[in-house]
């Protein structure tokens, strides 16, 4: 297999607050290969945005990346080593802040946020901003950059780009503004685009159109994406591979079809049951019971045990790591749930525990054991 474009290993990012240390990202590892769209999915507060800002080294105080490694195209975005006195210090080869600012952010790794008004200046025309961005980042003269800007606007499906070039952000609809940001992200021909819930605020039809456009552009330019969302239907629509996050951890990792049809983690199942799915008409959507606990003092054992319909005593005690659960010859599919044989910690003999799943004891569900689908 070729080297990944981006590789994240055991990344830990924490916020040091008055109430305690928030373990926002708590030891996640994942890869992004060239030309693929990798999903980062989970409920609000799971740590998705902190994970993506860590990749760009944009975590602000009181937050800090405290451990792990981030490699991008063979270069070190983040990495620590032990110093002479046993202290942890940045590795020599770690990219400097200037390199991050001048070369990586926006150019090699672009980011698209949920709210386009955060990235677009209301007092300048849309075309002017796009042109200037292209001029600065691609060393083109103003006329060439303008031509390129108009081409990009056309590329992302903005009708009559020549005339809309001179309009201001407020004259664009939410969906059109989001298209402009996608044009801006693509303009520097980055290797990787990080999209943090860019379609969440849009209505479903507009969202669908944008996802379709992104899929087409992705194929054309072969750009890699990290797509952050809490919505499994978005995952189904555009992702190749998926990482499911819960309370700072990745609890399941698989190709998109395997995640949907051979789900290994009860949290992933709960997420799937709580959302409308394009491939399935369900009689009733079931919201996930309870709320995600605080990331300051995460529950012992499996962090999901307090909400899990399949939780047993052992789940309160054993903190599961992410293990390979794929059958031979299948694409890698990892999961962090001790109900699987790969863990062998006595789940089968462990008594069920009371959880927040409504009915008190989850007897009916535990009867059927692990793999019932
Ligand atoms: N500046 C901050 N100070 C303290 N805690 C923070 C800060 N930023 C994020 N957190 C905490 O880090 C955790 C992860 O937050 P994050 O924004 O990454 O979640 P998310 O998965 O992106 O959620 P959403 O879907 O709502 O965007 C949360 O517990 C959040 O409260
Ligand atoms: Ni977020």
TrEMBL record:
SMART domains per UniProt: AAA
Compartments where located: Cell membrane
Stretches of the chain forming a coiled coil according to its record: none
Main location group: membrane
Assigned keywords, A-Z: ATP-binding, Cell membrane, Ion transport, Membrane, Nucleotide-binding, Translocase, Transport
Pfam family, one: ABC_tran
Keyword hit for Kinase: no
GO biological process: peptide transport
CC terms in the record's Gene Ontology section: plasma membrane
Domain of life per record: Archaea
Location of the ABC transporter domain: 6-272
Region feature Disordered, mapped onto this chain: 353-373
EC assignment: 7.2.2.11
Subunit field text: The complex is composed of two ATP-binding proteins (NikD and NikE), two transmembrane proteins (NikB and NikC) and a solute-binding protein (NikA).
Protein name (record): Nickel import system ATP-binding protein NikD
Species the sequence originates in: Halorubrum coriense DSM 10284
